[in-house]
Design brief:
The protein folds into three domains: 2-82, Hypothetical protein, domain 2 (Endonuclease III, domain 1, Orthogonal Bundle); 105-177, no CATH class; 196-253, Orthogonal Bundle (Arc Repressor Mutant, subunit A). 52% of the residues lie in helices and 2% in strands. The protein has helices at residues 2-5, 11-24, 28-32, 36-43, 50-65, 74-78, 85-95, 105-114, 127-135, 140-156, 174-177, 196-209, 216-222, 227-239, and strands at 243-245, 251-253. It is an enzyme of class 3 (hydrolase).
Length: 261
């Protein structure tokens, strides 16, 4: 749960909802038995709500095929709905203590600076896993702790904007040795206001707060600034399976529209 919730979402937003989910659905079979609509409502404002549906699908597979337990093998984890390369390795490493490379933005930054002498890592590449695995201690127990430490180092000391090199525990760093050259990566500021994501969120809010299917006019009123954008957002929600349309032309959260069309 936590690994999927934390994708592109800060811990401060995830923690309270994660605690609610763990209390409500302590094992996969508990979530698997819950309606999709309940899971989407419980997701709240975490964003990227498709993750909630993937978690629900994953819980169903775990309950049906894996004895209601999360597997430890990376390849088996990768076969589960919504589980990608990073999440599979994070679960194998942090939950089961395996010696597998776990590469996120923070880890890539530390490796870029300490090993390659670059301020930023640039775009993700296949070599990231290979390079990170080469740094892991041979002893399995130490490797899991090292992976956590490497991630924490990037998050708290070797940060993107104001790295605190005086506190860095590494014995050497190619970036510092090179005089801390400036980043060559052009940062793009991601906006939210006025985007399709915001429009989708407004439409979902209407359906989450409703006690049943709603008429199209209620969705139209939820996003009036750009009808074309609203239509695009609505279509994408239908395609993603987050909402459904009833035979009467009403709209509802996934699983709450009856037979649909």
């Amino acid at each position: 749960m936590s690994e999927i919730m934390l994708q592109q979402t800060p811990v401060v937003r995830v923690e309270p909802i994660w605690r609610e989910w763990v209390a409500r659905w302590p094992v996969p079979s508990a979530m698997a038995a819950a309606p999709q609509g309940d899971v989407l409502r419980a997701w709240g404002k975490l964003g990227y709500p498709r993750r909630a549906l993937r978690l629900h699908e994953c819980a169903q597979v775990l309950a049906r095929d894996h004895g209601d337990e999360v597997p430890a093998d990376v390849e088996v984890l990768l076969s589960l709905p919504g589980i990608g390369a990073y999440t599979a390795r994070a679960v194998a490493c942090f939950a089961y203590g395996q010696r597998v490379p776990v590469v996120d933005t923070n880890v890539r930054r530390v490796v870029a600076r300490a090993v390659h002498g670059k301020a930023e890592a640039g775009n993700p590449a296949a070599r990231d896993l290979v390079e990170t695995e080469a740094l892991l201690p041979a002893q399995i127990k130490r490797a899991a702790v090292f992976s956590a430490a490497l991630m924490e180092l990037g998050a708290t000391v070797c940060t993107a904007r104001n790295p605190d090199c005086a506190r860095c525990p590494l014995p050497s760093c190619a970036w510092v040795t090179a005089g801390r050259p400036a980043s060559e990566v052009v940062r793009r500021v991601q906006k939210y206001e006025g985007t399709d994501r915001q429009a989708r969120g407004r439409l979902l809010d209407v359906l989450r707060d409703a006690h049943g299917p709603v008429e199209r006019i209620r969705l139209d009123l939820a996003w009036t600034r750009d009808p074309g954008q609203r239509d695009r957002a609505l279509d994408s929600l239908l395609v993603d399976g987050l909402i459904e349309q009833t035979a009467e032309g009403l709209f509802a959260l996934a699983g709450e529209g009856g037979a649909g069309v």
